[in-house]
Amino acid sequence: MRIAIDLDGTLADIHKVFLEELEKQEDIVHSFEDLENYYFDEAPFSVKKFHKLARENWKNREIPLTDKEIPTHLEKLSQSHRVDIVTARDDVDRKILRNWLKRKNVKFQDLVVDKEKTHLNYDVLIDDSPSYIGEGMKILLYDRPYNEEAETGENSRRVQDFSEAREHIESKLV
Known about the structure:
By secondary structure, the chain is α/β, with parallel strands linked by helices. 32% of the residues lie in helices and 16% in strands. A 6-stranded parallel β-sheet has the order 3-2-1-4-5-6. Helix 1 crosses helix 2 (47-60) and helix 3 runs parallel beside helix 5.
């Protein structure tokens, strides 16, 4: 099976670092729960500000994994499946992204930069964006506060963590 895994918000906890940086700059505390939808329509900051700080954070901050068990689960998946990282993050040097993946011991075969994702030849996409649901590819929607209102459909399932994602893939529930 060919598996595509998103980077920002799925592997990398970019939102946690963003909120910490925003707190430093504005001296206002924002919680992860303030991120009520994927496009931050109701958030107390602009999407433009998020992308600007995210770009800077990739270059200047250590971004944690969203789930400390990710390396273990991807190591096991990569033993019998092709695992690629597919990101829309085209505004950060790929070398920075590759080095982060290496430091975090994330096992993958290729790093693909593509905003659309679903036209690529993958069997399943693990992503925190609900925008890919219903576009033809099987989706494992990585549960985050900002996507909890999104409904899954026939070819999609919500997963809480990478243990659950791996379970779905290995039992061919996707």
